[in-house]
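Hi,

I'm pasting everything inline rather than attaching a file, because the server keeps stripping attachments. The sequence lines come first, and each chain or strand is labelled.
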Amino acid sequence: MNGTSAGRVAVIGFAASDVSVTTSGVETLVPVFEAALARAALDRRDVDFWCSGSSDYLAGRAFSFVNAVDAIGAVPPIAESHVEMDAAWALYEAYIKILAGEASTALVYGFGKGTAGELARVLALQLDPYTVAPLWPDAISVGALQARLGIDTGLFSERDLAAVAAARDETSSVETLLDRPYLAMPLREHDVARVADGASAVVLAAADRVGGRRAAWISGIGHRVDPQGFGERDLTAVPSASAAAADAGGLDGVEVAALHAPFTHQELLLRRALGLPDEVRSVAFGSNPMFSAGLSRIGAAAEEVMSGRAAVAAAHATAGPLLQQNLVCVLRSGS
Amino acid sequence: MDTLSAPLTIAFDYTRSLGPVLGRFMAGLRGGRVLGGRTSDGRVHVPPLEYDPGTHAPVTELVEVSPAGTVLSWTWTDRPLEGQPLDRPFGWALIRLDGADTALLHAVDAGGSDAMSTGMRVRIRWAAERIGHIRDIECFEPGEAGPDSGGDGADGAVVEIVTTPIRLHYRHSTSVEESGYLRGLAEGRIVGRRCPACRKVYVPPRVCPACGVATVDEVEVADRGTVTTFCVVNVPFAGQRLTPPYVVAQVLLDGADIPIPHLILGVPAAEVRMGLRVAAVWRDRADWTTTPENIDHFEPSGEADAPYETFAEHL
Ligand SMILES: [Zn+2]
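And the predicted assembly:
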């Protein structure tokens, strides 16, 4: 961690919406931008760099991110970029842009209408296009293969998975959840994050632009990737998450973690890979709005710091099948 | 207001070139053999890798492995989805073939989930017709390798290209603004919206791309306007509805601040010009629905050409 304010970057605003009416997402983004900028006390014209994460496959139309630029107001011209990944990776791009001195402020946003298509089939297209995608394995079945490996090797039980779900939803108990039918053995409905529409935005600023604003300082970010082939990695370990956490400076002292786990068993795999002790509090999320969920974890972790509920928070985002790609971001209060 | 939505299917046959490793792997499948790639550590990968993850050198040694193997993990699907290997309930499994060190993903035709277990033995059921594609493996079935596990074993020529059809289904939904526009069209009206900040009128209505704010007030514009720019389509393509040459133009409707693309017919392509005044030719009123196709095309209105200054801002 850089001890001086020079070269430091902070989150100064966050907003999210779980409502998305249209396929393009433009109308959803306008109020999200307004809210994030209001919390950052920044004007739209003061944003040096815009960066987004979304996917044409989710929207079912080409160049869908270009439409979204309407929500920015792109006249006079703006500096803008896009990643075909969760917008947590767009945040990484913006973070580097600020560290490089090419921008002082950035607004990062992610959006997606997960309910527009059959998400489990759409996600098959991120698999190896030669030997796997032509079989159309759906995302829930693929997740189930990973869960069973964890159960067979004794890392957790179906009861442990239900306990993760029950902890997120006070109205359910482990017993009632275990009575429910399988969606894809050994996974039940509560083990799979609900498909959702959504959008979120995070505002970043360099130290000299933070001023007196509330800020959560990014003390480190790492992102790593594991091999694509399911047979090429130990699916019960998440080496890229462990490596990303180390790259982010380690998670010692973290009081709260916001993890992006599309399945209950993946939350348990991640806590293990990240070495998070039980006393580290979790920010609960019930749904998985594609392409904004990871960015929202960073926003939520930053909120924990900006509100004073935690001095050090960790956020995690994942992309690709079965936790293939992982990003870890550590946020700290200024004091 | 209720917004309009409609089903949307997109489809494309992806053709992918294979290279020397996957090309030989697919040729092997066509011949009823499974080839793995050996890396410098001695491990055999199925499917083969193109590069050694340890040394980063190209993988060149392919070795045959057994068509039978062991299930390392499995799940069961009661409702197969479009495109999957079987259209009746089946298991998905990670299968390590005998002689391989890595597992591959495929379907197991086991009849019921009771017949599935970790550690179970399965063998390949080959597709009746094999073309050099991963789908040459129809699926796996419980059992050991039989005496007849495929074709003649000849690899033949390296497979250079695989084709994989992709079909995805969506429900495309419109915004409140777009729905107002489409409902207007069903009544023979063209409805845009005005930006509250810069006062420009967008047809079809959208968030103002200059100001980044939602447009609010509905504004009806004329069904005639000015050609700002155009192109002559001379190239035939799949799905083309008209015979080339024909003209696609940007038409700035009177009252709008942004042009719409449309066909210009009823005039030789060579006579279409910037500034040409055109009017919409609507389809038969009985056929009108909530679609831009209610306007079949535009054709010259007979008015004098618009001066360049009147549309210069919109080029
Ligand atoms: Zn405007």
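The two ends of chain B are 34 Å apart (CA to CA).

If the labels don't parse on your end, tell me and I'll reformat.
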